[in-house]
Fold this sequence. Notes:
Blueprint: E1 6-8, E2 15-17, E3 21-26, E4 32-35, E5 43-48, H1 51-60, H2 62-67, H3 73-87
Antiparallel strand pairs: 1-2, 3-4, 3-5
Protein name: YlxR family protein
Pfam family, one: YlxR
InterPro entries: YlxR, YlxR-like_sf, YlxR_dom
Amino acid sequence: MKKIPQRTCIGCKAKKDKKELIRIVKNKEGEITIDRTGKMQGRGAYICDDITCLERAIKTKSLERSFESPIDEGVYENLRGVMIDNKK
């Protein structure tokens, strides 16, 4: 039986299968993007596909701590858009 990688959500701190979470990546140039493939180069952070987890991550600044840099509001808006699109 193949072992399924587990990751921790930065919002709710729950451990889930890697495929169930959305990966956010900071590359060497400092650009922060959403990694739909899960294979992009750079430092990654994972979050549940849930608006409440995103709001909790914004409130506690956990994404900023993960990437050790301030996060542009556009990144959060992009994440909200992805989460809303996934619900449709």
